[in-house]
């Protein structure tokens, strides 16, 4: 049954009150993306050389959040990579997942983690804004515009 004060309200008000009650009773994770995206940029390289996506991920939530992949209508294939130097040789490794701990910040940046953007589906020019969707383990999908920059982009 409804609490008495609610039951006495006109019906539209009652619905509004119940909606608000439900809204505030639900865990905030259903509403707000815990991961904030900033400084999203792409380093374009000539021809069909894969481009690199860089971004700062800030976890303002109370739970660890894990990036498990990304996709974009502008590229056939997007994966998470990490640049590593082994025995003096710089290589890249595929990364299955990247966790951003609660309250922490992870930077995808030159020399470290990056999104490897392979096989452009259409020409991309410096200055273009390319939409990339970040896929999180909790099912959230975050869309962000990445600013396409020159090969010198850091
Ligand atoms: Cu790479």
Automatic annotation (TrEMBL):
Highest taxon of source: Bacteria
Pfam families assigned: PCuAC
PANTHER family in the cross-refs: BLR7088 PROTEIN (PTHR36302), COPPER CHAPERONE PCU(A)C (PTHR36302:SF1)
Identification of the protein by name: Copper chaperone PCu(A)C
